[in-house]
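INTERNAL AUDIT FORM
Audit reference: QA-55
Scope: verify that the stored structure record matches its stored sequence.
Auditor: D.O.
Record contents follow.
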Amino acid sequence: MNFLKDFFFMFVRSFLYKKAARSIRKKGVLAYLRALQVLRKSLAGSVLLFVFLQLMVVGFTGSIVVGIFLIPQDLEVRLWILFGVFGAFFLLPFMILLFIFSERVWYRLSGAEKMVADLRE
């Protein structure tokens, strides 16, 4: 009699486990689809923002070039001014990117430096 009781409980437990696993799998797929939708929308927004920023940079650069060429100087002086301005346009963001992506900066700002110091104590 105990054998039938154990077999019945094992069968019910197996059925409930399969049902719970199926439910968890469904919830996981729904969460994945929601995350995928958020990622798709944020990627579209990022591309749109990038395009508008590029348009702003092109407009800014064009206005600087036109402004420099409107200065009443000879061509060589205007070209040296443009060279300096565009060199600064390259170097300033380059230096900022080097600083932002520096491993030392991330190590300090993320709190990892404090965690390592706490481990050493």
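Auditor finding: record pair retrieved intact. The chain is about 90% helix and 0% strand.
Action required: none
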